[in-house]
Amino acid sequence: MTAPRYWKGAARELATRDAVLKKLVTQFKGLALGSRGDAFQTLARAIVGQQISVKAAQSVWNRFAAEVQTVSPAAVHCLDTQRLRGCGLSGQKAGYLLDLAGRFHSGALDPGNWQQLDDETLIAELIQVKGIGRWTAEMFLIFYMTRPNVLPLADIGLQRAMSLHYNKGKPLTRSKMLKIGDSWAPWRSVATWYMWRSLDPLPVEY
Fold first, then answer.
1. For the whole model, what pTM was predicted?
2. Which segment of 127-136, 166-175, 190-199 scores lowest on mean pLDDT?
3. Any idea what DSSP says for residue 204?
4. Architecture of the 39-143 domain
5. Are 84 and 60 within 8 A, CB to CB?
6. What is the C-alpha separation between 188 and 141, in angstroms, rounded?
7. Sequence ranges of the domains in the chain
């Protein structure tokens, strides 16, 4: 896992601007977001992790990885839905993973072109894939592309953390979340990561 080059500077800058983040940056000193460097695995992990806890997602992923042995588009493409369901995946998620593997295997998805795309253009391309909505695409931008300024407003963890730290535990409106997020720019991904850490010290990885 390799942390983005901008991470330390971004964390220092956020800590000077925001009292909440100052505390979190100090509390989780030495921890940082890391990229696994594999586009297919990152998207596959994000699909597995949809709507379940970090712990449950890791358990399902471990069973899936043991079944596949080598988590690659070619290896997953050769599996059937029944074998994937045996790993604890729903039928729907199994279908999503097979579709994703097929698109990578055929070259319909080409990560080589993605560095040139801005965040919104890349999100628009990714959500054409079955099972990849905006949230999954945003996780990909944060964890694989390590884009620094992504604010996943639909993320339940981010919503909960922001309400706890900025509104005494009461739900925040989307506009209020955006306003707070704007104060984090251009390091909204970094601030989001620290919000997640405040709820679960175990780093989220995709």
1. 0.85
2. 127-136
3. P
4. Orthogonal Bundle (1.10)
5. no
6. 12
7. 7-34+150-199, 39-143
